[in-house]
Amino acid sequence: MRLIEDIVHRPYPLPTGVWVMKQEWHRLLFAHWSLNPAQLQPLIPKGLTLDTFDGQAWISVVPFYMRGIRLRVTPTAPYLSAFAELNVRTYVTVNGDKPGVVFFSLDAANPIGVWLGRNWYHLPYFNADMQVQVDGDKVTYSSRRTHKNAPAGEFQATYAPDSDVFHAEPGTLDHWLVERYCLYTVGRKGQIVRGDIHHVRWPVQRAKADITLNTVAPIPLTNTPDLVHYAHKIEVLAWPIKAT
Fold first, then answer.
1. Which of 110, 111, 186, 198 is the most buried (most CB within 10 A)?
2. CATH number, domain 3-243
3. Phi-psi sector, 72: left (phi>0), alpha (psi -120 to 50), beta
């Protein structure tokens, strides 16, 4: 089955129009912290509703690296097709509809990718010095934000899978955290815009993570997340942003 045809797991239909970009995401850690919603609500753009699970808000730090980045009508470009990225996100809806994520930051080790992310998708991308080392299943990851006039942010961790692969069941916290199919951000005119994505169900694993430095979030986080997931690889299709 082609990726675009594997849709029964989606919480809402595919967006109209054609996808414009394809990416591969590799060696992801999802490090999640549970928080009182009052801690995150002031940080959410007006027009978005903070999503909660059993009354708790969540913030996630997600390091990984990308490969195979290309536009629908072009082959992969050597300099743009692979780089490390680390994002910090929380979970939102628009009036309870289309659950997605909003990013507090996206650090990336590619200046052109950062420029495109900031100007095409209006996302808070920042240049960063990043290293990723893979030894079997173990990933050693470090990131230090270098973007001019940006808030300081560093992250260092070693992580690895710690269970068999599984697909999260609807209604569980695992599913609520990982099965998100759009991002929200603030457009050039101050309006809320949405960027849709599509992929198969996340093939996640339980994980173990040793986080030794973690200052990338907009609020202080401990070095011990409440929950961690690992995913080896997933292919992603992305659509252009549009008004909600």
1. 110
2. 2.40.400.10
3. alpha
CB 209 within 8 A of CB 8: no
For the chain, what are the domain ranges? Answer: 3-243
Are 198 and 181 within 8 A, CB to CB?
yes
Provide the whole-model pTM: 0.96
For residues 73-79, average pLDDT: 72
What is the tens place of the pLDDT at every residue in 141-183? 999 999 999 999 999 999 999 999 999 999 999 999 999 999 9
pLDDT tens digit sequence for 198-209: 999 999 999 999
Tokens for 186? 């603030």
